[in-house]
Amino acid sequence: MTPLSEEQKRDLEAAAFRRLVSHLRERTDVQNIDLMNLAGFCRNCLSNWYREAAAEAGIALDKAQSREIVYGMPYDEWRDKYQREATPEQADAFRENRPKDH
């Protein structure tokens, strides 16, 4: 394995994060509940993690700002355009598999 400097790791992790966010912005057909049920995290989780990382760096971001960074638009706009009501099956799976910290 090629040894990486801390700076290289940070840059590669940042690039991977940007690609993940870009992918999720393109896949507006994938609902957050689907992500939660499959992977245990969703766009909102990513925005929370982003906000927490900013806070650790001494940067104040509110929930709306971090969500807009992840969604690429204000959250309310994304929700109105793309979010669908969860099916009973999705809701049941979420209740059964929901991570304990959500």
UniProtKB/TrEMBL annotation:
InterPro entries: SMc04008-like_domain (IPR023163), SMc04008-like_sf (IPR036810). SUPFAM superfamilies: SMc04008-like (SSF158757). This is SMc04008-like domain-containing protein. Residues 30-95 form the SMc04008-like domain.
